[in-house]
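FORM 7B: Structural annotation worksheet

SECTION A. Query
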Amino acid sequence: MIPDSDNPAVLAEEVRKEFPVPGGSLVILDGVDLAVDRGESVAVMGPSGAGKSTLLHILGTLDSPTSGRVRLLGCDPFSLSASDLADFRNGELGFVFQDHQLLPQCTALENVLIPTLVRPRRSKETLDRARRLLESVGLSDRATYRPCDLSGGERQRVAIARALVNKPSVLLCDEPTGSVDSKTADAVGDCFLGLLQEEKIALVIVTHNGRFAGRFGRVLNLAEGRLVGVKE
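SECTION B. Predicted structure
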């Protein structure tokens, strides 16, 4: 679909998420509001269990809110059929997780190309883009390496390239530096910032790392189910 330029790439209004527990319900998100434009970056911080990953999963359409409104590129993703939602997620959303989740039997280039496999035919343009993304994240000389031959930071950068191969409008990252050292975290941050303007994506990152979070345009804290500005 063509992104709606008149709307934020990511919009959440009064988003609430609760889970049933014995004797009642557990409220994780309690009226979250968030708007992120293309080319803008937001880091979300908060203690473990605050609901950061839950929020990211809702923004990524991997989970649905109990109530509230979510719009991605001007579209209500939860109104789509299962097949249309899968197509939307594959084409418009990119995901980077703390555990890179690379396939060990595949090379770096093959891992980057995995999201393209659901498309009818892989074109030379797609293959060229995968190679350019590996070059953008500093791994053009590692294209034929398997994950076991890459460092933790290199594996995470392959995961970033994989998340971008289908030219998504929104990139969602869950603790992308949680399992790497500070030097590697800096390299991953450099990678994100470089790609942010080049790809013109809307970037939402969940992290515990305050130093890493401070490198992005806005920093928000999730506490008691709501988002509060730390750096606007």
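SECTION C. Observations
The beta strands are 10-21, 24-36, 41-45, 67-72, 93-97, 170-174, 202-206, 218-223, 226-231. The chain has a mean pLDDT of 89.

SECTION D. Sign-off
Analyst initials: ____
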